[in-house]
Design goal:
It contains 14 helices and 13 strands. The protein is of the alpha/beta class. It has a single domain, classed as Glycosidases (TIM Barrel). Strands 1-2-3-4-5-7-10-11 form an eight-stranded parallel β-barrel, surrounded by five helices. Strand 12 and strand 13 form a beta hairpin. It is globular. The two termini are 27 Å apart. The structure holds 5-hydroxymethyl-3,4-dihydroxypiperidine.
Length: 449
């Protein structure tokens, strides 16, 4: 970790933390919430590493006031949470459930009372099970259903949410959920999962239009990106890297920013109807960027089903997820976005950045996580360097406020600034929490000068 002072950030830079509904809320059967695909998946034997579910998770549904107090203690200016579609419209297309919205109404008011901007994500993978039963994102009708849910949510919260994010990481939901079957809904369709990309994007575009009628707040989407590193300089390795870049980094961003779909082997344009691309390219105010690590890629063996093969990137420290820690990859990525999309690129907020380590309380009950401090320090310096290089980055959200339920990994991966005892629910701020608190306080002092 650098010993140099953290460089100053621009005035108004948004300091935040991120979470998502199914990963922290629990309360899955309360106040009219219906089942989501993640309830179904987590309760299916063999799907989750430790056999756990999100039934209770961090019990945030009941402990939200304590969690907002933790955020206030941290001094963040924004909190990015997600709204559970199955709380708001449990059947997907039936009546809106006002009790479900009550929960978010209280949360938003509490955040505002603590001077924290509510940043709401509308879809972080917890599709109502009835929508899945009707075809889910493979089916075009899910797009207007999503826009109706967005409309109902913004009708209630549109006057107070300060930034709307339509979808979180639609690439991950397509590939892990529908291509490879390791996330809900557990489908193993490989390239036949592409309609999931198009229908999510169509849902995004329709939701943007709905949100614009309900709120004057900015609207965006959160994509995850990974700078692609070819294993060698051969034409074959470079072609493989370009194919992976089209899939991971451009499939969801080219059409959003008005460029249509990139060329990608296997992409079936038959699902794209006249007018869809214009809906998808509705102007957005913010591009959310989730970054964790770069990806190494080489040419596949002859006859392999994919046009690339992923290879480990050696020579870097690794997180508990075995992900390489490459802070400069974030600077590289932000520059790539600026160079690739130029004037079409809206201002960026880094909507997720963080790391998992096996953090545990010591004999005194304190949780020391120096690796996370080094990780965040490095990634914030990378953001600052990108700003110096001319990229318009206006915020940074740590993933995550709390240790939480990490999807197929269950409770085995801890990403929080705050340790959570998953038996008792007790929260213990880690040393990274104090570090981030002090960093925000110092940034506020310098930008207030
Ligand atoms: O926990 C996830 C989050 O839900 C989406 N982005 C990546 C995080 C870490 O895996």
């Amino acid at each position: 970790m650098s010993t140099a002072a953290m460089p100053e950030f621009p005035a108004g830079f948004r300091w935040g933390v991120s979470t998502s509904a199914y990963q922290i809320e629990g309360g899955v059967a309360e106040d009219g919430r219906g089942p989501s695909i993640w309830d179904t998946f987590a309760h299916s034997p063999g799907r989750i590493a430790d056999g756990s579910t999100g039934d209770v998770a961090c019990d945030h549904y009941h402990r939200h006031a304590e969690d907002v107090a933790l955020m206030a203690g941290l001094g963040v200016s924004a909190y990015r949470f997600s709204i559970a579609w199955p709380r708001v419209r449990p059947s997907g297309d039936g009546p809106v459930n006002p009790s479900g919205l009550d929960f978010y109404d209280r949360l938003v008011d509490d955040l505002l009372a603590h001077d924290i901007d509510p940043v709401a994500t509308l879809f972080h993978w917890d599709l109502p099970q009835p929508v899945q039963d009707a075809g889910g994102w493979l089916h075009r009708d899910t797009a207007p259903r999503f826009a109706e849910y967005a409309d109902a949510t913004a009708a209630r919260l549109g006057d107070r949410v300060k930034l709307w994010i339509t979808l979180n990481e639609p690439f991950v939901h397509m590939t892990l959920g529908h291509g490879m079957g390791v996330h809900a809904p557990g489908q193993l369709l490989l390239f036949d999962a592409f309609p999931v990309a198009h229908h999510q994007l169509l849902g995004h575009g329709l939701a943007v239009a709905a949100l614009r009628t309900r709120t004057a707040s900015p609207v965006g989407i959160a994509n995850n990106y990974s700078p692609v590193r070819p294993a060698g300089q051969s034409d074959a390795d470079r072609a493989a890297a370009a194919a992976y870049e089209a899939l991971h980094n451009r499939l969801f961003t080219d059409p959003l920013l008005g460029r249509g779909y990139p060329d990608f082997p296997g992409f079936d344009p038959a699902v794209v109807r006249d007018g869809d691309l214009a809906v998808i390219a509705a102007p957005i105010d913010v591009l959310g960027v989730n970054y964790y690590n770069p990806t190494g890629v080489r040419a596949p063996e002859d006859g392999a089903p994919l046009p690339f093969e992923l290879v480990p990137l050696d020579g870097y420290p690794r997180t508990a997820f075995d992900w390489p820690v490459v802070p400069d990859g974030l600077r590289e990525l932000l520059g790539w976005l600026r160079d690739t999309y130029g004037d079409d690129l809206p201002p960026i907020q880094v909507t997720e950045s963080g790391c998992a380590y096996d953090d545990a309380p010591d004999a005194d009950g304190r949780v020391h996580d120096p690796e996370r401090i080094a990780y965040l320090d490095g990634h914030l310096r990378a953001v600052r360097a990108a700003i110096d290089e001319g990229v318009d980055v206006t915020g940074y959200f740590v993933w995550s406020l709390l240790d939480n339920w990490e999807w197929a990994e269950g409770f085995t991966k801890r990403f929080g600034l705050v340790h959570v005892d998953f038996d008792s629910g007790a929260r213990t701020p880690k040393s990274s929490y104090a570090w981030f608190r002090d960093l925000i306080a110092a940034a506020r002092r310098t930008t207030a000068r």
